Amino acid sequence: MAITRRDFLKGAVATAAAGVALPAAAGNSHATTAERRTFLVDGLDPSHDGLKLVQLSDLHVGPRTPPERIRDAIARANAFHPDLVVLTGDYLSRDTRGVGLMREQLGGLAAPTVAVLGNHDHWVDPRGASRALRALGYAVLRNENTTLQLRGAPFTVIGIDDRLSGESRPQEALRGAPAEGSRVVLAHGPRTADDLRGAGQPLLCLSGHTHGGQVHIPGLTSLVLRAVAHEPYERGLYRLGAVQLYVNRGVGNSALRVRVNSDPEVTLAVLRPAAPRA
Fold first, then answer.
1. Using CA of residue 50, residue 161, residue 191, residue 229, what is the dihedral sign?
2. What is the DSSP code string of the chain?
3. Considering the domain boundaries, does residue 152 fall inside one?
4. Distance between alpha carbon 278 and the CA centroid of its chain, in Å?
5. pLDDT: is 26 or 226 the higher one?
6. Which of 19, 34, 113, 264 could form a disulfide with 138 if both were Cys (CB 3.0 to 4.6 A apart)?
7. Across-strand partners of 147?
8. Which domain holds residue 268?
9. Residue 149 covered by a domain
10. Does position 96 have pLDDT exceeding 90, yes or no?
11. Which CATH number covers residue 211?
12. Which tens digit of pLDDT belongs to each residue from 123-158?
């Protein structure tokens, strides 16, 4: 596989960090970090006030991600006793043998689980990745939506396929979904949120892809992300008009085996109703 912009980005950042940031990477082996976030959601059903949603992203099974870290992420997710788990893409890395590793390593999530695919999944084996997820009991959405009953009320999950690989079709994914109420959007690529702004709807979009830079040097990583990978959204929460975008740092490693100032993340998202608009 030819080098991608993402690989170039991470190599450039790693080179800049060499010799000064390596001590910060020492703790990056097996543990994940919990990020607890509260999101105010327009039109949230009263039954879903306080609903707990756990997000895992960029698990990247294979030699660069210790399986112990993946198990830690799954155990941490279950320990939150969430109402719903969402997976936002890039389960594979570069090898079709990763499909078997997905079946071995990604099972065990106790709550209802919904997933979308990422660019690596499309580059390696999208059908195999989808089959592996479904074999584990997880739903896979590819430019479509589904409505679950959570806490006795309908909750809609809108899954948008990967933007970088040209598979993203937001309007198709939104078709038939309720225009208000309890909803969340899953999209691997953060820039999908730019496409959602035109929908004119208040939406919460959960994404991944950037690994939070993976090698995060304040002031440099975000600059290189913008200039090389054309990714303006590195990590955390952004507001794009009526769209709230959250970018998860991910669990696994891709181009590099280390993380610097970008701990693997398991997100606990607690949903609260937004105040009615005047």
1. positive
2. -PPPHHHHHHHHHHHHHTTTSGGGGTT-SS--EEEEEEEEETT--GGGTTEEEEEE-----STTS-HHHHHHHHHHHHHT--SEEEEES----S-TTHHHHHHHHS----S-EEEE--HHHHHH-HHHHHHHHHHTT-EE-SSEEEEEEETTEEEEEEEE--TTTT---HHHHHTTS-SSSSEEEEESSTTHHHHHGGG-S-EEEEE-SSGGGSB--TTTHHHHHHHHS-----SEEEEETTEEEEE---SS-SS-S--BS---EEEEEEEEEPPPP-
3. no
4. 33
5. 226
6. 113
7. 156
8. 5-10+34-141+170-273
9. no
10. yes
11. 3.60.21.10
12. 999 999 999 999 999 999 999 999 999 999 999 999
Tokens 């994914």 found at: 173
Name the domain count of the chain.
1
Is residue 24, in this structure, part of any structural domain at all? no
- Count how many residues are written for the chain: 278
Amino acid at 252: G
